[in-house]
Amino acid sequence: xxxxxxxxxxxxxxxxxxxxxxxxxxxxxxxxxxxxxxxxxxxxxxxxxxxxxxxxxxxxxxxxxxxxxxxxxxxxxxxxxxxxxxxxxxxxxxxxxxxxxxxxxxxxxxxxxxxxxxxxxxxxxxxxxxxxxxxxxxxxxxxxxxxxxxxxxxxxxxxxxxxxxxxxxxxxxxxxxxxxxxxxxxxxxxxxxxxxxxxxxxxxxxxxxxxxxxxxxxxxxxxxxxxxxxxxxxxxxxxxxxxxxxxxxxxxxxxxxxxxxxxxxxxxxxxxxxxxxxxxxxxxxxxxxxxxxxxxxxxxxxxxxxxxxxxxxxxxxxxxxxxxxxxxxxxxxxxxxxxxxxxxxxxxxxxxxxxxxxxxxxxxxxxxxxxxxxxxxxxxxxxxxxxxxxxxxxxxxxxxxxxxxxxxxxxxxxxxxxxxxxxxxxxxxxxxxxxxxxxxxxxxxxxxxxxxxxxxxxxxxxxxxxxxxxxxxxxxxxxxxxxxxxxxxxxx
Length: 492
Ligand SMILES: Cc1cc2nc3c(=O)[nH]c(=O)nc-3n(C[C@H](O)[C@H](O)[C@H](O)COP(=O)(O)OP(=O)(O)OC[C@H]3O[C@@H](n4cnc5c(N)ncnc54)[C@H](O)[C@@H]3O)c2cc1C
Fold this sequence. Notes:
Structural class: alpha/beta
Strand content: 15-25%
Number of strands: 22
CATH architecture of the largest domain: 3-Layer(bba) Sandwich
Number of helices: 16
Radius of gyration: 24 Å
Shape: globular
CATH topology of the largest domain: FAD/NAD(P)-binding domain
CATH superfamily of the largest domain: FAD/NAD(P)-binding domain
Bound molecules: flavin-adenine dinucleotide
Number of domains: 3
């Protein structure tokens, strides 16, 4: 029987797993990554990177078409084959050779097989065709197994074998028509991508579009999807799905029947925890795994969970942030440290609660961080939300003659700090990090006033938002260019 010991054993070599192993190694511990598919995980091969590659080319053409001079030069059709080839290059043609080489270079061992926890600190890895290896962790086992597409319980849906995000991001050709069930980020991005690639797209969402974000975000994306000829059915339940040789038929509670060559289900994620041995240690297979801010699983002193699987924030950058925190916590505890008195150390993922940045790469982009106005109000803050049309900023008019976008800054009136910010518009993704810093650092608005944005950039939206808000401690005056600020203090 092959038995090996490591300080840290990680189940799953996605972005989160890789980072926790790396951080543990940098702290002087030995680390093993186990992986039953591709080292690099969902983000590299079936999620962030290929989806952004599918979106980018059409977005660049649309951006050029909004700038006279460039518009005249953009006369041909999108080269779909070239887009797919670029997507293939982004995914390294679904080869993980370079990521495996990175792990080796970082001093991390990789075992390719399915891993299961069998007892405290014990992991069994099934190596295809080569038997099993028993592993013992001296300090920690980290679950970083990610999430899968959630398939809702709709009559006929599972049997019809619809696309999930994996199929949509790795498609070899563009279907003539695509129906999408869902109204979240993946649905909105894939509707934008496939409409840009020439498919006739229909979105069926049981709620609004981009729920949970500021309402104007979904409204602006809705308008742009309509301009791309995407048919959108909101507040519509899918009641039945069937499939024949022509494609899919979707029936709804509003009596509509939608047919399409392909059907994508984008209705959320479920944890990859069904077959990783959770039952052997008293946890429930198939559940999300709950942790504290050092990513230690509730009730354990040796088990950690990072990335999607802990359901704190299903985004690559947050998973990597959690992984760095968990790696540092494991190293510190291995060295006998007590961590309870250092709330801002690198071993806690406190920003998961305060400032999670997210970009939805639709056209316009939606970039948001922190609390929405209504979430802040629900959390008990005395809130003032300030809105500004980004198209009225000089820098935005340089980017595009038809710039349409809006920004909202959500201010805690008692502390004069920003709780949240949302930007909707072309190229706003690069404006977001300033908001993240302002929120995490709790920069008072009268201090932020001295962070002068360069002219003429879209970042001047910051100046306009601050002017609209009025200088704290100096009355809430408004500038000549300012639009009215909206107050939520009294629930308005
Ligand atoms: C279409 C789409 C687009 C997205 N776009 C973005 C974006 O633009 N930006 C962003 O921040 N986020 C994006 N996300 C979210 C992002 O992909 C995830 O948050 C991220 O991939 C999660 O990383 P992870 O390491 O937790 O899990 P994963 O990347 O899923 O990695 C888990 C790994 O564990 C392996 N594994 C599972 N079980 C076992 C086992 N028992 N034994 C061995 N190996 C195992 C899996 O094979 C996998 O490689 C997107 C998601 C989707 C679906």
